[in-house]
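Our consortium's second objective concerns turning raw sequence data into structural hypotheses that experimental partners can test. To show how far this objective has progressed, the report includes one record in full. It was chosen at random from the queue rather than selected for favorable results. The single chain below, 322 residues long, was entered without modification.
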Amino acid sequence: MTSLSTAGHAGALQGDRLAGLACGMGAGALWGLVFLAPELVGDFGPLHLTIGRYLCYGLISGVLVAFRWRSLMARVARRQWLSLAWLAFAGNTLYYLLLSAAVQTGGIAMTSLVIGFLPIAVTIIGSRDSGAVPLGRLVPSLLLCAAGVVCIGWQAIAHPAGGSLGRTLLGLACAAGALASWTAYAVGNARALHRLEHVTPHEWNLLTGVVTGAQSMALIPLAILLGAGGHELSSWAWLGAVSMGVALLASIYGNALWNRMSRLLPLTLVGQMILFETLFALLYGLAWEHRLPTPLEAAALALVVLSVLTCLKAHRPVAATY
């Protein structure tokens, strides 16, 4: 009887792993679309994109959450609202602004190389959680991840765009800040979801959207101060359409999948799922440019897939011992 119970628990745990993997892949596929937005609305800067995306995210979230607002107010304490405010700032507002600044001052290659270490940072932090897979078992996966990130950024780094050393260092600092910001979000959000059994991942995402939308409104005076003229009405309409599409696909559906995955998987696996955003962003970029991957890009794709498979294998013996 005990063996049957243990086998059943192990089977359920394996099912959670597979469901979490599917959610992580879906979130990465939707988040990868964000990298196309600047190409679609090239007349606007990152500040306008940030405001547009998160205002739409807040608006959609507000409409969807309105019907359950009273119920959520009874289930979400003041301490959890403070946590939401921090997570929305770290994972959305601050992260996107730092990322955009890093790309503008340091270049896409350097930024992607630094941000690509997110899975390593999150996995190392997650290995310290109670009952987590020992870090030694995750070393092969982490090495494959690092090798894939290096391949993605190496080509452009070998032929850097012209610019002063000061701008390059500023870009590096912004990229490092974005790395720290989203690492804090990924860790804090996963732990918050594990504590909040009375709030669903979808509800948590909608509340995050409401808070992020409120934060983005504080950026509007800055955008006005920096100047928002010189655009025709049709350009503003196109920015609104792209912002709404990104908010719906990446922020509503993508975040919902990510939150569900964060509840199903241990933090050591959550870190690896971030690789799917990089993977899909690269695939979308290749499709946009109408070309096949270079040898280094193909190697990066293979290394990313191997990194995730190796990480899943490292977790399999742990699931079998429950």
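The partners drew two points from this record. The radius of gyration is 20 Å. Residues 318-322 have pLDDT under 50 and may be disordered. Both points have been shared with the crystallography group to help prioritize constructs.
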